[in-house]
Fold:
Amino acid sequence: MKTLLASFIFFTRLPFWRIAKVPPEAFRRVVEWWPLVGLLTGGITAGSLWVLAHLFPLQVAVVCAFAIRVLATGALHEDGLADFFDGFGGGTTRERILAIMKDSHIGTYGVVGLIFYYLLAVGCVSSMPLSIACAVVFAADPWSKWCASLLVKFLPYCRKENEAKSGVIYLRIPAWELLLTAFISLIPSVFLPLPWLPVWLASPVCALLLILLMHRKIEGYTGDCCGAAFLLCELSYFLTATILY
Structure:
C-alpha cells in the first residue's frame, strides 16, 4: 500500500502526501504501479473533456482537458519528452546525450517536439466524436504508462544513483506485477467502441522501438526516457484510434 501511495505522490501533484508518510525506499518501486496512476489521470482527463465539451467547441475542450492533466501531473512527463528530444536530437555520443538530458534548459528539439506532440494529440482526439474521444483518452493513459514501464523491466538505468534527477533508481519490475498491472490497465478498454487489438498493439510496438533506440544510443534508460516513452506510446495509441475511426 505504501508503494502504491508513493506512485500517486511521485507521479501527480495531488495532495496524496497528506494521507500517510511514505518511506524513501518505496519510491524505488513507483514505476510498478504507474499504470494505476494512469487510471486516475486518464479518468480526470476524460471526465474534464466530457464536461468541457458541453461548454466549448470540442477542439478547445481537448486542449483544456490536456491542460488539466498537465496541472495534475506537474508536467512531469512533458519535461521528460522535451529532454528526450533535446538529448537524442542534439547528442551524437552516449555521454553527450546524457549530458544534454540532464541540462535543465530546454532546447530547440524539445520545444519543437512538444509542439508537434500536442498538435498531433489534440488533432487526433478532437477528430473523433465526444463519446469515442473520452473513451480513447481514458483507455490510452494507463495502457501507455504500462508500456512505458517496460523500459524499467528490460533496460538498466544508465546513470549512477547520485546523478539521477529524482535521486531514485527504480527497481526492476517483477513479472507477476507486470502481468497484474497489464490486466488492470486494460480495463478501461471495455469502453472503446473500436477494435481493441490494433490500439492495444500500437503502444507496445512503440515502446519496443524506443527500447531498441535507447539500448543502442545510451545503453539504458533515464527518468526522462520513461516520461517520453509514456507520451510517445500514448500518441501512437491516439494515431491508431484515429485511423480505425
